[in-house]
Design goal:
By secondary structure, the chain is an alpha+beta fold. Among the domains are: 41 residues, no CATH class; 160 residues, Homing endonucleases (Endonuclease I-creI), CATH 3.10.28.10; 55 residues, no CATH class. 62% of the residues lie in helices and 7% in strands. The protein contains 20 helices and 6 strands. A 4-stranded antiparallel beta sheet has the order 3-4-6-5. Strands 1-2 form a two-stranded antiparallel sheet. The protein is extended, with a radius of gyration of 35 Å. The protein starts with a helix and ends with a helix. The relative contact order is 0.04.
Length: 444
C-alpha cells in the first residue's frame, strides 16, 4: 500500500493502475485521502486562528474571522497585489519562522518532532519547485543549471508563461552560458599563471591564514564564521541574553558555582570558540554527544570563582530572566572567598542551594521540590536572609579599624620624636587626610 501511494504521489498513474488493477480502487483511495484532508481542515477551523502556541487556520496576510463563518474581507489594495493568495515567498517563510520560534520553548522528543516537521515542510516546498520545473517541458534538458540559480515560485510561473519561440531560445541560451561558466570555474586551478604576480603573492595560503586570524574568523570543518561587530560592542549584554535563553546558572551539591553557555551544530561550535576568545575566560567542551542523539553539543563553562564573579558582575545589569540566579551565585562566591569560618556560612550555603533549585525549576510543572526540602512558603524568607548586607557591614568595620590604627600610629610617632614644625605639619596632614577621606567617606 505504501508503494502504491508513492506511485500516486509521483504522478505515475499508469504504474499505479497496474499495481492495484482497477480504476475503482484509485477512486476509493482518492476519496479516502480527501476525507483525511477535510478532517484535518475541520480540526484547524475549530481551533481558531493559528499562533505561536497553537495550531489552527491560516489566511494570507494574517487575516482572521470575525465569527465562525465570516472572514474579514481583503482590501482593494490587497486584491490588486494578490495578497489574498498564499504567497510562498512571504507566507511560507512566516510559518517556518513562527515554528522555529515556538521550537525554542520545547525540549526532548517534542522539540525533535517539531524539527522534523519543519524539515518536512521545507522538503515539500523543494519538491513542489522541482515539479514546477518539470512542468516546463522545453527546459527539461537544462534542469541542472536552472537549479543552480536563485528563483522562487513566481519566477517559474513567469517562465512557464513564455510562449514566444525567440524568448524561449534566449532563456535556453542564458542557461547554456551559465552552465559553461560553471564548468570553466570548476576546472580552473589556483596557480600563479592565472593571476597577477602581486595579487598571487597577496593571496598565498600563509597570507590568507594570517588575514583570517586577524579578522577573528573561525574555521569549522571548512566553513568560516565571524562574530558580528555589534555583538563585540555589547559583549556582556549579548552574553547575558544568551545565558537567559540557552545557558544556565547553578551550583552543584558541593556548593561549587557553575555557569555555562550551550549551543549545537557547527555554527554553535564556532560561536562558542569566538565568544570564549572575546571574554578571555571559561573552558570549552566541544562536539559532545547529545542525550537525544541529535546534533553535537558545544559548551562554554565557567568553573573558577574568579571567572564566575567577573562574568556575572559584568552581565548582571543585562539579565532579564536569571537575575536572581546571578545574585545568589555572587553571594556564594563572596562567602566562599572570605567568610568560610563564619558561624552562618554552612546554613546559608544550604539555603542558596535550595533557592537555586527553586529558581531553576519553578516553571517546571510537576517538579518534585520536596526531595530537596524546599517549602514554597519559606522561599521569600530565604531570599530575605541574604548575607550581602552583613558582609558589607563586616568589611566596613574592618576598613574603619585599619584607618583608626594608622591614625593612632601617626600620633604615637608625633609624641615619641621631637619633630620640627615642618615634620609635625606633614604628620598632622597625613592624619587629617586619613580621617577625612576614609572615615568620613565610609560614614557618608
Amino acid at each position: 500500500m505504501t508503494a502504491q501511494r508513492l506511485l500516486l504521489d509521483t504522478g505515475n498513474l499508469n504504474m499505479f493502475h497496474q499495481s492495484i488493477g482497477s480504476l475503482t480502487l484509485l477512486d476509493d483511495y482518492r476519496r479516502w485521502r480527501d476525507r483525511v484532508f477535510i478532517d484535518e481542515l475541520f480540526k484547524s477551523e475549530s481551533r481558531g486562528a493559528s499562533s505561536d502556541t497553537q495550531g489552527g487556520y491560516y489566511y494570507p496576510n494574517t487575516k482572521t474571522k470575525s465569527n465562525s463563518t465570516t472572514l474579514n474581507s481583503y482590501s482593494a489594495t490587497e486584491y490588486a497585489s494578490e495578497r489574498f493568495k498564499f504567497n510562498v515567498k512571504t507566507d511560507l517563510l512566516e510559518v517556518v519562522k513562527s515554528l522555529r520560534k515556538y521550537r525554542r520553548t520545547l525540549k526532548g522528543d517534542n522539540k525533535e518532532e517539531l524539527t522534523k516537521s519543519i524539515e518536512n515542510l521545507i522538503d515539500a516546498y523543494s519538491l513542489h519547485l522541482d515539479d514546477c520545473i518539470k512542468s516546463i517541458y522545453w527546459l527539461s534538458k537544462y534542469e541542472y543549471p536552472l537549479k543552480q540559480m536563485s528563483f522562487n515560485e513566481m519566477d517559474l510561473k513567469k517562465i512557464h508563461s513564455v510562449k514566444n519561440y525567440n524568448e524561449r531560445l534566449e532563456l535556453v541560451d542564458i542557461l547554456c552560458k551559465y552552465w559553461e561558466a560553471d564548468l570553466d570555474l570548476k576546472t580552473t586551478t589556483y596557480s600563479k599563471e592565472n593571476m597577477d604576480n602581486k595579487l598571487y603573492r597577496r593571496s598565498s595560503p600563509q597570507i590568507i591564514s594570517k588575514m583570517v586570524d586577524r579578522l577573528g574568523i573561525t574555521n569549522v570543518d571548512g566553513a568560516y564564521y565571524k562574530l558580528s561587530d555589534d555583538i563585540k560592542k555589547d559583549l556582556y549584554a549579548y552574553t547575558a541574553s544568551f545565558i537567559d535563553s540557552d545557558g544556565y546558572i547553578t551550583i552543584d551539591k558541593n556548593y561549587n558555582p557553575r555557569v555555562g553557555l550551550v549551543a549545537t551544530g557547527d555554527r554553535g561550535k564556532a560561536f562558542m570558540i569566538q565568544i570564549q576568545k572575546e571574554l578571555g575566560i571559561g573552558k570549552l567542551h566541544l562536539d559532545q554527544k547529545s542525550p537525544q542523539g541529535t546534533r553535537p553539543v558545544n559548551r562554554l563553562n565557567f568553573y573558577s570563582q574568579g571567572d564566575v564573579h567577573e562574568l556575572l558582575t559584568k552581565c548582571r545589569p543585562h539579565f532579564r530572566m536569571k537575575g536572581k540566579n546571578a545574585d545568589l551565585l555572587l553571594e556564594l562566591v563572596r562567602m566562599k572567598k572570605s567568610y568560610k569560618k563564619a558561624d552562618w556560612y554552612k546554613q546559608r550555603c544550604e539555603e542558596i542551594f535550595k533557592l537555586m533549585k527553586y529558581e531553576n525549576h519553578k516553571d517546571h510543572v510537576g517538579y518534585d521540590f520536596t526531595k530537596y526540602g524546599i517549602d514554597f512558603e519559606t522561599v521569600a524568607k530565604l531570599h530575605d536572609n541574604c548575607k550581602m548586607g552583613t558582609m558589607d557591614d563586616l568589611e566596613g568595620i574592618l576598613k574603619e579599624d585599619d584607618v583608626n590604627e594608622a591614625i593612632d600610629e601617626l600620633e604615637e610617632v608625633a609624641e615619641e620624636f621631637d619633630l620640627s614644625e615642618h615634620d609635625w605639619s606633614s604628620v598632622d596632614d597625613a592624619s587629617d587626610y586619613l580621617f577625612e577621606h576614609k572615615v568620613l567617606d565610609e560614614e557618608e
